[in-house]
Amino acid sequence: MDNDQGISNALGLIHPIIIEKGLNAEVWDQNGQRYIDFIGGIGVLNLGHCHPQIVSAIQTQAQKLTHYAFNAAQHQPYLEFMKQLIDFIPVSYSLAGMFTNSGAEATENALKVARTVTGRTGIIAFDGGFHGRTLAAVNLNGKVAPYKDGLGGLSGSVYHIPYPSKDNHVTTQDAKKALARLFQVEVDIKNISAMIFEPILGEGGFHIMNADFAQFLQEFCRKNGILLIIDEIQSGFGRTGKPFAFKQLGVEPDLLLLGKSIAGGLPLGALIGRKEYMNYPIKGALGGTYSGNPIACAAGLATLDLMQSKTYQNNVQDYIQIIEAYYAKWKKHNLTPWLGRLTGVGAMRGIELSHPEYGAGTTLLAEILVQARKKGLLLMPSGQAKNIIRLLTPLTIEPEIFKEGLDILEQILVENAQKFIKESA
């Protein structure tokens, strides 16, 4: 970033453009250049930019009440959204929750609840996971650079084990062995308060956890008095094609983290959990000045209503069919030797760039990001080696625009893959 703008250089920037407006899956910069948006505010805009129903809800609420701290006095949007959200979450037990300003704040509060309920401090997280940038949350992340660089010793006792997935070649048995070793060598199991995982890694490359390991983990936690925290900040609210990814793994969380697309673009997160756990901390232990802002809650109510519509559900199925058809075509026609796996599940997919001889296509993807932007397509990298194109396209994208974007990507994959191989040789 340019220091003359007064903005810290520590903020990362993928695309050096200034977005001025957006509509569904298209955005325009300050020069009027149009882009197809495959980033969606990093997973915040599952329902697209400026959905008219969400905008209308925001405008209506802004004319009535812009803010009131819920710890001081209640307001109706918070009450109504929490009630509907709890009814929407598919679990077999009673729930209670709180709203937060972000996913990272939901993570922080989950750690507080877990510590209070169990009387323990240790946490087990996974390689490749991402749970936020605040000081306690960042320690959970399964990656050092850039999140932990220069921070020194971090708060809390956090231990990491491999994330088992068909997408990363780590088996369920590998993860079980690592967990067993942890308790043999690193920490007493009686010191562990919670285990936290993403059903599908977000920043880590859209890898889906093996269902058999997730189910093993649930039973393991129950047996040992450990809380199971499931982070659906990115995978939740329809991103996978289902309301929540944990159902696809056959498990239920003790504590559930939500954020990103929960409020159609407004800053809002949530911590929802078993009622007895969420009610355990003393009165006043949870809360926040802006948490559950009435305008954000109004946007959340509109988002929840849209997600349950038949139109939205049809849009998601169209999205899944299109991406799977394109990938199958690319594989069938050997589009490029760099085309690796289609990671993830449903509508939460990543396109891996990997070559049998040259390895991870990190440099290739960096080049593709630039070329795609020049052709009017915004993409984002993910994965430990930043060699996976992370598709966070609005799920409401018009099929013709989605295909237009994938056609641009197809052209660039061919052009850049051929050029890169030639230069590497």
Layout of secondary structure:
Elements: E1 19-23, E2 26-29, E3 34-37, H1 40-43, H2 52-62, H3 76-88, E4 95-100, H4 103-118, E5 122-126, H5 135-140, E6 158-161, H6 172-186, E7 192-197, H7 211-223, E8 227-231, H8 246-249, E9 255-258, E10 269-274, H9 275-278, H10 294-307, H11 310-332, E11 339-345, E12 348-355, E13 359-360, H12 362-374, E14 377-378, E15 381-382, E16 388-390, H13 399-424
Parallel strand pairs: 3-14, 5-6, 5-7, 7-8, 8-9
Antiparallel strand pairs: 1-2, 2-3, 4-10, 9-10, 11-12, 12-13, 12-16, 15-16
Description:
The chain is an alpha/beta fold and 425 residues long. Helices cover 38% and strands 17% of the residues. It has 13 helices and 16 strands. The strands form three sheets. A seven-stranded mixed β-sheet has the order 4-10-9-8-7-5-6, sandwiched between helices. Strands 11, 12, 13, 15 and 16 form a five-stranded antiparallel β-sheet that branches. Helix 2 (52-62) runs antiparallel to helix 10, helix 3 runs parallel beside helix 10 (294-307) and helix 12 packs across helix 13 (399-424). The protein is globular, with a radius of gyration of 21 Å. The relative contact order is 0.16.
